Amino acid sequence: MNLIDSNYSNRQSSEAASERTLYPYVTGTSVVAIKYKDGILMAADMGGSYGSTLRYKSVERLKPIGKHSLLGASGEISDFQEILRYLDELILNDNMWDDGNSLGPKEVHSYLTRVMYNRRNKFNPLWNSLVLGGVKNGQKFLGMVSMIGVNFEDDHVATGFGNHLARPILRDEWHENLTFEDGVKLLEKCMRVLLYRDRSAINKIQIAKITEEGAATFKPYSLKTFWGFSAFENPTVGAEGSW
């Protein structure tokens, strides 16, 4: 082997050693979140898809962050775990100051925008869309961050298919004085629409809330569904002339 061939071979092996994941492996689908009268409500299903296979049925994607924030994520599950590790270090460092103050949701959201944008600039993005909500000093905050660092704040946010299918419902039915019960019903309606139309969604969902008193994650449960549509029994009903 001459010198040129040797350099080419070494370069190939070096490039192979530094390859990055081009596609996510195990992913979670939509997260939907809203502001309600007392704080923030968030919902996500428990599915984890290995490609197009619904491999896992008990994946939790809603996590409290510090004292004032709640995080939800869709996308690659292992990348979400990496983000949680970053946030654990951030909260630990903040607690070590012991100055009587703690990071609020705005600060955590800003940190996440920098993390996601930084990884995007390294061409090694974290394959997640994140929803960050929280309450501090009576101020409610709700925002999202995409995998390339695009971010915004709103009264209701959603990731994945939820951005297309759930937010139109929220625009019509959301209002700032929603009670906890009405907020849960609205989220269930959104999650049911996603279940019917998103192949990666399952009917086992989890809901979490955060208020001035702190975060609470509720036990997962199954949505009630209805599949007895008359069109399955007689596909020509309401469509005469098209068959």
From TrEMBL:
Q: What highest taxon heads this organism's lineage?
A: Eukaryota
A Gene Ontology biological process annotation?
proteolysis involved in protein catabolic process
Recite the UniProt keywords alphabetically: Cytoplasm, Nucleus, Proteasome
GO CC, any one term: cytoplasm
The subcellular location is:
Cytoplasm; Nucleus
Q: Does the keyword Lipid metabolism apply?
A: no
Please describe the quaternary structure of this protein: Component of the 20S core complex of the 26S proteasome. The 26S proteasome is composed of a core protease (CP), known as the 20S proteasome, capped at one or both ends by the 19S regulatory particle (RP/PA700). The 20S proteasome core is composed of 28 subunits that are arranged in four stacked rings, resulting in a barrel-shaped structure. The two end rings are each formed by seven alpha subunits, and the two central rings are each formed by seven beta subunits. The catalytic chamber with the active sites is on the inside of the barrel.
- PANTHER family found in the cross-reference section: PROTEASOME SUBUNIT ALPHA/BETA
Function according to Swiss-Prot or TrEMBL: Non-catalytic component of the proteasome.
The entry's family comment says: Belongs to the peptidase T1B family.
> What is the protein name stated in its UniProt record?
Proteasome subunit beta
| Source organism (scientific name) | Quillaja saponaria (Soap bark tree)
